[in-house]
Amino acid sequence: MAIVQRISPCLWFADQAEEAARFYVGIFPNSRITTVTRYSAAGTEIHGRPAGSVMVVAFELDGQTFTALNGGPIFTFNEAVSLVVNCRTQDEIDHYWNALGEGGDPRAQQCGWLKDRYGLAWQIVPDSMDEMFRDETSPATERAMTAMLGMKKIDLAVLQRAHAGT
After folding, report:
1. Which DSSP symbol is given to 75?
2. At 3, is the pLDDT very low, low, confident or very high (cuts 50, 70, 90)?
3. Rounded to a whole number, what is the distance in angstroms from the first to the last CA of the chain?
4. Whole-prediction pTM value?
5. Which long-range contacts (C-beta less than 8 Å, at least 24 apart) are formed by 107-115?
6. In what order do the strands lie in the sheet with 82-87?
7. How many Cα atoms within 13 Å fall on the side-chain side of residue 122?
């Protein structure tokens, strides 16, 4: 019996929902657009969107469901919410960092965080990060934290060496 994802993020775009969804599904394996819903003429005086234009795009990234909404320029993304991509290897970190960061703001890159071309914040981190930072009083954690604070994209080997003290 399949487990249904109960909670799913809805990402608000001015008018790039479909473009962004296509961008994201092109980066992650096991990804697809599942539904594109369009605005009808009903409610135009409220939503202000042209009839026939894209309203909502439902999509999956590596099996996780997302919704992208074209709601107009009223709201924009900020770093208060980010999407975390846990990576097993440096190759995965490099892939997601380069693909998601393409066209994004290079000034918004620090400690594994980046903003993509749509302004959405992502954290591209090794899946061992929680373990490395588990004990905030250990010298290993202090060394790893110091190393990470000097990085934009995470260098897994440098982080592991710092944690090990080598």
Report:
1. -
2. low
3. 47
4. 0.93
5. 108/79, 109/152, 109/153, 110/151, 110/152, 111/148, 111/149, 111/151, 111/152, 111/154, 112/148, 112/151, 112/153, 112/154, 113/79, 113/82, 114/152, 114/153, 115/77, 115/79
6. 82-87, 121-126, 113-115
7. 25
